[in-house]
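Example S7 (structure tokens).
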């Protein structure tokens, strides 16, 4: 059962990350945005900052999805505690001050694995945004 829950959450968080990825890539290649960014470094910096913000939103959304699941399973008495545990486990910080009941411990493994995968995905996405802005700078290109 715990493996199934973890797999379902992986699918759900992947769908969320795909949505964030699509938004970021569409924004990065929208002709108006490309033309706007090609003109000034401060604009490229703003796009990179926006990409970082959307990437962070993606990760927080993943943690919130897990927190809602954990709260929905009545494993925590508040959404705040549920989110705290989710964030600590998702980021693999794992202070150990808040734990799941023993019969649910394996769910923590799924949450941590999910966090590692989504952190890698988000890092790659952010690198893509930065590379694209550097390419605009180096090529000083404008859309055709």
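Recovered sequence:
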């Amino acid at each position: 059962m715990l493996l199934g829950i973890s797999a379902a959450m992986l699918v759900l968080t992947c769908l969320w990350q795909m949505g964030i990825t699509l938004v970021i890539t569409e924004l990065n290649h929208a002709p108006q945005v490309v033309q706007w960014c090609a003109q000034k470094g401060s604009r490229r910096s703003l796009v990179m900052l926006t990409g970082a913000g959307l990437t962070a939103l993606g990760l927080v959304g993943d943690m919130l999805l897990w927190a809602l699941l954990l709260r929905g399973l009545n494993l925590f008495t508040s959404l705040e505690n549920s989110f705290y545990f989710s964030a600590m486990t998702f980021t693999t910080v794992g202070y150990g001050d808040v734990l799941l009941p023993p019969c649910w411990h394996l769910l923590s493994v799924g949450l941590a694995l999910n966090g590692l995968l989504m952190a890698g995905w988000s890092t790659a996405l952010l690198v893509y945004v930065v590379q694209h802005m550097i390419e605009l700078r180096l090529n000083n290109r404008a859309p055709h």
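Notes on this example. The first helix runs from residue 2 to 29.
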